[in-house]
Amino acid sequence: MKKHSITHYLNLKKNPKKTPLRCMAFALAAVLMISTLVLPVPASAKSLDTISVGLYFVNNALESANLQNVTGYGSGYELGLYDLDENGDYKQFVALAQTDVVDISMLIDRTQYFSGSGYTTSASSGLMVGAYHLELVYSYDSYQQARDTAMLYDDGFVAYSYGKYFVRFGSYATYADAQAESGLYADCTVTGESEYGITVVQTSTGRILFELDEGAGTNLGVKPLGSGETRTWFKGKQYNGSFRYDRPEGEAMHVANLLPLEQYVAAVLCREFGFSWPEEAMKAGACCIRTFAMTGDKHRTFDVCNSTCCQVYEGVHDGSQWEYILQLCEATAGECIYYDNQPILAVFHSSNGGATSSSADTWTMDYPYLQGVYDPFESLVSTGAKNWSATYSLSELTELAQTWGFQCSAITEVYVSEYSEQGNVNAVTFVDANETSHTFTGEDTTMFRSSAYNGSRRYVIIPPWGSAEVSDVKIGEEGTPGSDSNAQGSSEAGEFLVYDGVSTTAHTTISVLTASGPVTVSGEAQILRAETAQSSPGAETSTYPSVVLTTRTITNDTGDYMVYGSGWGHNVGLSAYGAYAMAQQGYSYTEILQYYYQGASIR
Ligand SMILES: [Zn+2]
From the CA of 292, how far away is ligand 1's center (Å)? Predict the structure, then answer.
């Protein structure tokens, strides 16, 4: 059978009548846990020229962490600590020492061994860096003085502790080993492992370069040396800026990357939006990322982390487009999104499939600028969110409900129990064999997945052999809503455009291939309504197009429960693919932002 993909997006009807769903059957589904892009947090502004991004911390804190200058982007490092800046953050770098070694490892101050890929306290053989040293009884006021003395010893190095420099030498695994050697030297004592100390070594040789120990609260700062942009390898990724190492619990190190805000925005933009997107969409994305960074307050010792908990950050994009993306970010440098003079919660998602959802329906917090709006733009982008479908047997639905926390017996029925005004799912109810029902609401309703897409909030659940109405959301022209008003993506009412990889043809009935067989979709489209142009309060000149909904019926002849939807994400705030489409239509980044964050201003 020839495989077709549909070029427009099939969405559910506004407030469809709930039909009781009889349970019967069967099918597939891989259940993935949702990674939440963001949780709503109270927004407050902070000044942020330099951002600190947590890379490894708490559960994945490290006993050792290595760095290597990227060839051509720096050579050696300044070593020091981060002091409080004028905002009360540990971002003020204070240089204490320097090295021209390009490969260094930071070790918690315990005896460690090089395992081939890195240092570890658990190994007992290999290149050894001992935690015990001999220390001269004198202290020094400057690094240079201490350094000159340290060079008189074969493996001498400088340590900084409680505001003074010291000279240490030797590297022993135990106190006894160090003590046995100490008799050979004048004026020295044994110094040992430390709860908060951090040792810097040359990775390849284990030679100690520097030690820092200021007791509780110690942090080590490492700033690459270089005349221009610096880049540094860390665990297979390249980073701009500097690094900070803390041992807040006295054990493994927390690692943060400190870099100029706009470089961070550019790096996240490459990851979240794709660097070849239209400029105005990228600028809109940059404003979202920057605003989110300005308001992030989930973490104590850094501004944001590098995961979906905050925003995914994987260091500098190592491609030819990097300079261009950086320039795009700098074109909006410092600009954030505000509502009532407060920076907004600038959440975004990949694709909403036809309409956004309000924050109130998603996370219970009601923000005036995070309301549900129809999205007629996404359907204009062929690379945007497409339709997805997934089929579930009753046993798979049972497993799904249990995975998501429902203590239930065998599931006998599932249905959408509440839709939003724009037709997104607000609640899904599962009924089990004891006739107990359990309802998932808000972001949890993204629980259904197809193999190709993560779920969204825009779908219908069709019982075995049942049918449901879905709606397309399209751009219409005022006065002539619907039908063929848009040459770029829509079709005559009741028709489906099918792209077979070569050409696009119109059909009144199509088959959709699902994992358990074909599903018939028959064209019974009708124009529901045209909305008047939505204009943005903040921009008098902007006029957004009217929105047209067309409906049609999907018949589920698979014998399984079928979930038929569109979009990818939690549906709140800006749609990345919607921004892409709006930019292609000639909208500016401020118009894009004001469509998805209604009533907001950008400055
Ligand atoms: Zn985080």
Answer: 11
